[in-house]
Write a structure and sequence with these properties.
six-stranded mixed β-sheet; about 15% helix; about 600 residues; 36 strands; alpha+beta
Length: about 600
């Protein structure tokens, strides 16, 4: 995988048209136009730089990386802006292990415009971090993560998944053209190494040799060297039989040295004609080297490896002839052997990330990468402790007092099982103290003073038997101080609950009123709820009855005129009937009519 930093789209570059992926979503920082410090830098037009306002630690975090052995290479760049420091100095770490520190003048040397290391990636991710040192903003042009053979550069018992090999120097002898493995048409399992050319070790001290003949045994596993690497060489001369090369190194380090040979000199036709010793800083490390004999033929590759502990600042490789008067050398590789750092507990890293999000931690803190490693660049405000038994780092202290933090305390803080001191005083943290904090039983000092915390003090804090100093003053807490905390005051603990108007229950605070049990509070709440429900039901029933009465009155009012008319008609009929009945009775009484 190749990443073009700051690019907005994937690109391909000549001459091999390698594909470079844009770096979207891998990191923060600021994209900008790039100035290439060297011709060996990939021909990319953009970079990404990380101003100090983004924090002192900035990382590329890349997921879904298959488990394996990788060559990781980072090319540095220069921001094409006049106001930006043209030669920033910063540190580089891979998987929490510091592998490189840029030195002044790096832009003038081809082999210093990048850093390269062989790393085992085992958990499906890779974290590549850049650490500011106060000398300009880190600027990165490209990152390459190229898989190599699992056994590549095996150098002995110390080699393994806990070791990183950082490339210190890689030379191809007898030529003046810098090349990558791909330029040599090398196997991709070689990791596309960069070979810096050196035509001579010193004036009149040696002579170049070259051939176009095929070289056997070059591109073999596990290192897969390009065949063309062995088609040029340096040979010592009569005036200077010893072939010697000196390079500057970091002192008090271990180095793995790889020497490459192939007998391409036409004057040597068989075994025994060229024999020499190899010395490192004057000590013989290989004796009686006969390239033809040891490789089995002429035009065949031979690779020798040794590891040395260097106390001084220089490394001198000397080839001293014993037969034939001349020595030959095709290439040199030197790696610094670095013990990979143990990482911080994954659970505690996640807890800190949750805390960072909940408190809205400013970018200037630079909480990126691993909290504890590299040891030279721990997270700001975090104190770490190494557990030798588990080979893990743990967080045993957090000091984030008076940092303008906002937000709330998440329950995830309970996952910091080894925390002994927590200082979040003088911020604007609000909300309740999480009861989960009582699970951090190692806590000895807890300072949450002068925030905006409210609610009651969790009973769980009484479980913190190691707690000897507790500052909760200057908040808006209320309720009774847990009895377990109050009793601790008698044993010499220093607790401060002042400036919380609602707290009560211990000397120095107001006296608490009658306190109800949880069951009583639940019962009262249930009774109040039931009473309210009955009141609502009665109100609804009364309202419905009232509506029915009003409806009946309205109906009666509309029917009144008709009722009056019917009453009058009935009265008239009755009067008529009464009159007729009276007339009939008179006729009977008067006798027959005269007409009859």
């Amino acid at each position: 995988m190749r990443i073009s930093c700051g690019a907005r789209q994937n690109v391909r570059t000549p001459p091999t048209y390698a594909r470079w992926y844009k770096d979207f979503a891998y990191t923060g920082g600021i994209p900008a136009n790039a100035t290439r410090p060297s011709l060996v830098t990939p021909p990319l037009k953009t970079l990404r730089y990380f101003p100090l306002s983004e924090g002192p630690e900035n990382c590329y975090s890349i997921n879904r990386v298959p488990k394996g052995h990788y060559s990781v290479r980072i090319f540095f760049g220069l921001v094409a802006q006049p106001e930006v420091d043209n030669e920033p100095l910063f540190d580089v770490s891979v998987e929490g292990t510091l592998i490189h520190s840029l030195r002044s003048g790096w832009t003038r040397h081809d082999d210093q415009v990048f850093v390269e290391a062989l790393v085992f990636l085992l958990d499906g991710t890779v974290s590549i971090c850049f650490h500011s040192t106060g000398h300009g903003d880190p600027a990165i042009i490209s990152i390459e993560i190229l898989q190599v053979d699992e056994k590549a550069y095996y150098f002995g018992r110390e080699w393994g998944k806990g070791v990183i090999l950082k490339t210190t120097s890689r030379l191809t002898c007898g030529t003046s053209k810098p090349k990558f493995d791909e330029d040599y048409s090398g196997d991709h399992w070689g990791g596309d190494r960069f070979w810096r050319p050196i035509r001579t070790f010193g004036q009149n001290a040696d002579a170049p040799r070259s051939t176009e003949s095929s070289i056997k045994q070059a591109s073999d596993a596990p290192n897969f060297y390009p065949e063309a690497l062995y088609q040029s060489a340096i040979v010592s001369t009569d005036s200077q039989p010893d072939l010697a090369y000196t390079m500057d190194m970091d002192p008090n380090k271990n180095y793995s040295i790889w020497l490459h040979f192939a007998e391409i000199d036409a004057s040597i036709t068989g075994e025994g004609q060229r024999v020499f010793d190899v010395l490192i800083n004057g000590d013989i490390v290989f004796e009686d080297i006969d390239v033809v004999d040891m490789s089995g033929r002429r035009y065949a590759a031979l690779v020798l490896n040794t590891t040395v502990a260097l106390s001084g600042r220089t490394l001198t490789i000397t080839l001293r002839p014993k037969k034939g008067n001349h020595a030959i050398l095709n290439a040199i590789e030197v790696f610094q052997v670095i013990a990979a750092e143990s990482k911080t507990s994954t659970e505690e890293v996640r807890a800190l990330q949750a805390l960072k999000k909940a408190l809205g931690l400013p970018n200037r803190f630079g909480w990126n990468g691993d909290p504890c490693v590299p040891k030279e660049h721990p997270w700001s405000g975090a104190d770490c402790h190494f557990d030798k038994s588990g080979s893990k780092w743990f967080i045993d202290g957090l000091d984030l007092g008076s940092q303008g933090l906002r937000g709330f305390l998440p329950n995830a803080i309970s996952k910091l099982h080894h925390l002994q001191s927590l200082n979040l005083s003088g911020n604007t943290i609000h909300g309740a103290i999480p009861s989960a904090l009582g699970a951090v039983t190692s806590l000895e000092v807890l300072d949450l003073s002068y925030n905006f915390l409210n609610g009651s003090i969790p009973e769980s804090l009484g479980q913190l038997t190691a707690l000897r100093r507790l500052n909760l003053n200057g908040n808006s807490l209320s309720g009774r101080v847990p009895a377990a905390l109050g009793g601790r005051l008698l044993n010499g603990a220093s607790f401060n609950f002042t400036d919380n108007a609602g707290l009560c229950g211990i000397p120095g605070l107001s006296t608490c009123g009658p306190q109800l049990s949880v069951g009583a509070k639940v019962g009262i709440g249930f009774g109040v709820s039931l009473s309210f429900l009955l009141l609502v039901i009665c109100s609804v029933c009364w309202w419905k009855r009232r509506q029915n009465i009003l409806r009946a009155q309205q109906i009666a009012a509309r029917g009144a005129p008709y009722a009056k008319a019917r009453t009058q008609l009935s009265h008239d009929i009755q009067m008529s009937r009464h009159h007729n009945h009276g007339n009939a009775r008179t006729a009977a009484e008067n006798g027959p009519s005269l007409l009859s």
